[in-house]
Specification:
By secondary structure, the protein is mainly alpha-helical. It has a single domain, classed as ADP-ribosylation/Crystallin J1 (ADP-ribosylglycohydrolase fold), CATH 1.10.4080.10. 66% of the residues lie in helices and 0% in strands. Helix 11 packs parallel to helix 17, helix 14 packs antiparallel against helix 15 and helix 15 crosses helix 16. The protein is globular. The protein starts with a helix and ends with a helix. The chain binds inosine diphosphate ribose. The site of inosine diphosphate ribose has 23 residues, from helix 3, helix 5, helix 8 and helix 17.
């Protein structure tokens, strides 16, 4: 959870910067002064973690209510465009399944929002990949009914579980894709698996996308490739991920969640940690549990 929030807040400091500014700043390793605020990626991951802590599984009604309550308490966290309607309607008592299914002319959202929040779930159930997959799906469909959004969530949750398990980088993407349902996300992951880990992320983003379309397809394979290339170094992974631009807070949240599940915040510079908006105190109580 802390890796996800750090990635989200780090990425948000770069969001919507012109490519030239981004490139110079990232190559020179310049970081923004002042507080780095996390966004909807972290807000929704916190709700999901809270439900896991209370129920030890994804109680979908409770999760929908938690998402809606967090949105009502703080709607200015840069939520995806359709989430305003979805979370307001759920907060007003509408059935989450009906609200979620009717998005985008009945197709459901293919946005990256179900994937961006799910890494802590993968870590939670890391001992049992079947449960990782089934609970990731149950968590995704509460807001994202499209199969590509669900496939993206499965991929990220499995990646976080494999990260906890210590799977090495050269086996990582193949092990993830093995568990992802047939989809465009899966086929781009297979493409990602053929790209050398030493490649320039900007080149990789040209082949896989890097979230410019805010879809799971355009976001998740790139983020998992970046994570696999730097599995033991969260800081380096975030620099590399941001370099390509795109939906940086979300690609970095996914990468931070996956690698943080393995390394915690080890090696992250102290000034990054002090810049990042703190998480609620209850997160510490969860991580203190055996
Ligand atoms: O997926 P979602 O929660 O967005 C998350 C992103 C992250 O980057 C957050 O940090 C935040 O900035 O937004 O929100 P959605 O609105 O469900 O999906 C995101 C966007 O994907 C939508 O606003 C649409 O532009 C696009 N999209 C679709 N477009 C056409 N048809 C999602 N589903 C469709 C679709 O079916």
């Amino acid at each position: 959870m802390r890796g996800l929030a750090l990635g989200d807040a780090f990425g948000e400091t770069w969001f919507f910067r012109p490519a030239e500014v981004l490139e110079t700043a990232l190559v020179e390793r310049w970081v923004k002064d002042g507080e780095w605020l996390w966004t909807d990626d972290t807000a929704m991951a916190l709700s999901l973690l809270q439900i896991l802590d209370r129920h030890d599984r994804v109680d979908q009604d409770a999760l929908a209510a938690a998402f809606a309550a967090a949105y009502a308490a703080d709607p200015y966290r840069c939520y995806g465009a359709s989430m305003h309607d979805v979370l307001l309607a759920i907060g007003q008592g509408e059935d989450w399944e009906a609200v979620t299914r009717r998005q985008f002319d009945g197709m459901g959202s293919w946005g990256n929002g179900a994937a961006m929040r799910v890494a802590p779930l993968g870590a939670w159930f890391a001992d049992d990949l079947d449960t990782v997959v089934s609970e990731a799906v149950r968590s995704a469909v509460v807001t994202h009914a499209h199969p590509e959004a669900t496939a993206g969530a499965v991929a990220v949750a499995v990646a976080a579980a494999l990260s906890v398990r210590g799977v090495p980088g050269d086996e990582f993407i193949a092990a993830v894709v093995d568990r992802v349902p047939d989809s465009e996300v899966a086929s781009r992951l297979r493409r990602a698996d053929r790209i050398a880990s030493s490649s320039d992320p900007r080149h990789v983003a040209g082949m896989l996308g890097c979230g410019k379309q805010i879809s799971a397809v355009d976001t998740v394979p790139y983020a998992i490739w970046c994570a696999a290339a730097h599995l033991d170094d969260l800081t380096e992974a975030l620099w590399a991920t941001a370099l390509a631009g795109g939906d940086i807070d979300t690609t970095c949240a996914i990468v931070g969640g996956i690698i943080g599940a393995r390394t915690g915040l080890t090696g992250v510079p102290a000034d990054w940690l002090s810049s990042c908006e703190p998480l609620p105190a209850w997160v510490d109580d969860i991580s203190d549990q055996p």
